[in-house]
Amino acid sequence: KSMNENKKLYHLQLMTLVPLLY
Q1: 3-state DSSP call for residue 1?
Q2: pLDDT tens figures, 1-18
């Protein structure tokens, strides 16, 4: 897989984790 795809996945996970933390 390309690095860009990995970054996208990482960003998606962050977006779902942030609301849970706050």
Answers
A1: coil
A2: 578 888 999 889 888 888
Q: What pTM, to 2 d.p., does this model score?
A: 0.40
Cα atoms found within 13 Å of the Cα of residue 16, Cβ hemisphere only: 5
How many Å is the maximal CA-CA distance in the chain?
A: 32
Structure tokens at 21: 């933390």
b (16+ CB within 10 A) / e for 1-22: eeeeeeeeeeeeeeeeeeeeee
